[in-house]
Amino acid sequence: MHPTASCSAAEPAPAGHGHLLKQKIRLASGELFLALDRFWSQADVAARYPELLFHIHCVVRATVPAMETARRNAEARSPADPVATAMAAYLARHIPEELHHDDWLLDDLESLGVARETVLRRVPSPAAAALVGSLYYWALHAHPVAWMGYAAVTEGHPPSADYLVSVMRRTGLPQEGFRTYLKHAQLDPHHSREMYAALDAMPLTREQSSLLGVVAFQTIHHVAGLFAALTGPQPPHTAA
Q1: Residue range 202-236, pLDDT digits in tens
Q2: CATH number of the domain at 17-229, out of 1.25.40.10, 3.30.230.30, 1.20.910.10, 1.10.10.10?
Q3: Which of 139, 207, 153, 198 is nearest to 28 (CA)?
Q4: For a Cys staple, 149 with which of 90, 216, 217, 231, CB 3.0–4.6 Å?
Q5: What does pTM read for this prediction?
């Protein structure tokens, strides 16, 4: 969910499950990049940016619980399922890296004049519920490796720090409002490398490989919808 992809994004090896998933995402990302471009090119993006952070917070506050759900399901399937065993180990390593990112977003919103209590009191975004809710379904009722299809989209397009700086200059918004985005510009390349390396090491079945693509395509659609909902003639809803 970043404004533009960094050219430093990790490239998987030219073979394996990670490379195949990356190619599928590239082919299907037109809808997402169009929605991103439309949002960030709006003349009043400064007024809409806090509402974007609210929507992202709605997603990010559910990230660790969703990962924990996938990890528990993976552990329950182990050791009879080697992919589940690998997923349980991967998630156990990765979950601590995702802790408190929702608090980062609350800090960013406070720097933009939106109180934490206001954010937490609001009804969560339906777009966020659809995005994360579908992940719960795939991780519980298909296979926990579904998490990788989701993360390949949400973490697989690291932000360009240069682009973020250009947005700050164009809008006059303070750097403090972009701390989470800027941190992910540094963190996501590492996460992406680790994720694709883990995928390449897993003995995925044909069905599991197909599942990754289905989840990635659905994630692209939901993220694009989230940005599209914040684009258009209606003023954004951001309560101070």
Answers
A1: 999 999 999 999 999 999 999 999 999 999 776 55
A2: 1.20.910.10
A3: 153
A4: 216
A5: 0.89
